[in-house]
């Protein structure tokens, strides 16, 4: 189902014309209203009039998260505060959050983008949607909330946590659509199975995002719940969820190109890479009045596929995010993404999907310990089998990563579960040796 069919299926030529028009407006807005950008433009000798084609995008400076931090809270605002109607902030981490602001127009476009995502993934006004993202500064909950409500779903603003109550409402209210991080969805599915209530649920679609999810993890959630799980992507600086989402063919996430221009760059050199290359996603939003950003470096690693999609949408598809460039662990010189490890672990029958990656430094050398829960804890009593399983996992990891890791098998239900974004990497390398 389409939300804005004309816009979602417009020809690539029309799309390019629209992008250029909106890019010129965005650049002018940044130049005239945001001293930070005006200064850079002057230093680099660029004027808004220099943007005559989409190719001229390359002339524009890229923006990093540091710019938002340095201009905390609102020095990058391009409108008077009285025009701002909503404020969100980046989730988690330490220090001051990165604040983002929206005018009424920004909220309107944002919610349309999210409605496109949920329609593409199969939601309809008949659905009852439970939102298990935390409501607050995080854009996930209110973002999906607005989009689903705009579509006409019955939205339950449950927020994160309180797993028992989540499941009770899912059962009692006949919830058909679940919104959560994949890690929390997995946990919910496990608890539902333990309680023997899966058969009572009417769940049919999951909209999972805000963190990565390997195909293996997705399959596990789908099997547990008996649903279709779709992936959607976004980040607060770009607006929140709704930057891209999967259609029914699930062959990449359509980026709403009438509102966002995506590029792929080499994260090391910043050079724009040719179509089809894997690299860091850089996005220029084209509609933001309150906080316009030019060529924002997302830090997320993916690739773009411009080939036509069977659904009829003409907007480019981005591959599932492989990880963040700053997620990448460099261990003994080897580049390792947590998602690679997750794929290996989920291919082993005897272990469950909950794991922890612990990085340590011993004698100036980095080591990686992979802790993973056994499905059957009684295996811990059988030394021989345990050893064989540990060696098997170690060998599989070595084949994929080219790296020797320590594997620790632990009892079921001993590794922490997450209600928001999962934190699976524990980096102890800068702590005294242990
Ligand atoms: O996570 C926005 C969002 C909420 C997207 C709900 C989808 C659903 P932030 O908190 O600013 O915003 O975090 C943005 O989360 O740069 C990615 O690294 C990661 N991320 C978001 N969606 C996905 C996804 C929201 N589908 C950061 N797959 C981004 C992988 C994702 N990573």
Describe this structure in words.
Helix 2 crosses helix 3 (35-44) and helix 8 (182-194) packs parallel to helix 9 (215-225). The N and C termini lie far apart (55 Å). It is built from eleven helices and 20 strands. It is globular and about 75 Å long. The protein folds into two domains: 1-325, ANL, N-terminal domain (Rossmann fold); 329-427, 2-Layer Sandwich (GMP Synthetase, Chain A, domain 3). It is α/β, with parallel strands linked by helices and 434 residues long. The model has no long low-confidence stretch (mean pLDDT 95). Strands 3, 4, 5, 6, 7, 8, 9, 10, 11, 12, 13 and 14 form a twelve-stranded mixed sheet that branches. Helices cover 31% and strands 25% of the residues. 5'-O-[hydroxy(phenylacetyl)phosphoryl]adenosine (DLL) binds next to helix 6, strand 7, strand 8 and strand 12.
What attributes does this structure have?
single chain; 434 residues; alpha/beta; Rossmann fold; GMP Synthetase, Chain A, domain 3; twelve-stranded mixed β-sheet; four-stranded mixed β-sheet; 11 helices; 20 strands; binds 5'-O-[hydroxy(phenylacetyl)phosphoryl]adenosine; Adenylate-forming_Reductase
